[in-house]
Amino acid sequence: MGNFTQRNKKNAQKISNSQKISRFQNEFLQFIKQDERCRTMQFNKNNSIFIASCGDLVKVFYFKYGALSFLQQMKHNQLSVTFLSFVRNSQYFMSCCDQQIKFWSINGINNQKFITKVYQNERHYSCFAISDKNQLVVAGIENRIQFLYEDNQWKVYQYIENHNDWIYNLSFNESENILISFGGDYKISIMQKFNRFWKIIQIINVDGFGNQATFIGDDTFIFHPWCSKYMFQYILKQENNQIFCLSNKILMDGEGDLCNLCFSQYIMYGLQKYQQQIQLKQSQKRLLIKQDMNSILIFQVIENQELQFQQSLIFQSIQIQASMSNDGKYLITWDESSRNIQVISIEYH
To answer: Where is it found, in Gene Ontology cellular component terms (predicted)?
Structure first.
């Protein structure tokens, strides 16, 4: 497939419809009827457990050999669950809606009881980023960033209040020592960890609203504004006082279309090469999965942090949610048109 990194910054390369037609025979392995909207979903680290928000319920599944088996469901409260994530290397997961976070133990799923909760009296949660390396849950609470640390229980130990509007996106880099936030004030704030605390080291002003600001490695992140025909790529310039600079822009098909609810995901996994049952070497493969209009695009992150387009899956609705397994083999989706949870086996060239 084509390489969508553009070295000549005067011209942006377009992901055209012809290039977006998949040459691969991805296999749909399973369909589970799900009428209520799935707003968020995720695999645990070893891909054995899958969680999905279904209205005000959290549904938990076993996942094995490309098939989901229903395990349990828990009711968060009366409102729709807007965020789910595994924490502490998948020993627990958290769910959130409105002003409340609940933490659940994988070992205690059958009794349907959460182990602890965090509640905001006046403000509302808007987005999250999880750092297992730092044992951190970072939350956007309207225009404030909250840092939660686990010490027998989850405690707030730091706030950063730099945005003048709600925060809609948070993302850690691969090493989890740099964090970016995007707010409705059209600012990307870049924070770095110094000892235990986080400090803002750079602010980037952008021209449009968006909720897709995602790191793809340690020193590169992408930003796709709402209703923008461009996706922008920023790279850390070591020779320029270590600040992030715009390095590239990619012309997308989704120009002018609603994309404020779109998702993006970055994964990295190891590939083992064998010859006569002897392991020769292990390499890393990195993927960016993101939504553009009614399509899910899959890119491979190659040398120099370039994005190489792999394939796309096209749906009949822009209301899509998806999660890739951490070995890159399976994609689980939900879309408004089919109202099915679908398990798809992904083929690569």
So the answer is: cytosolic [4Fe-4S] assembly targeting complex
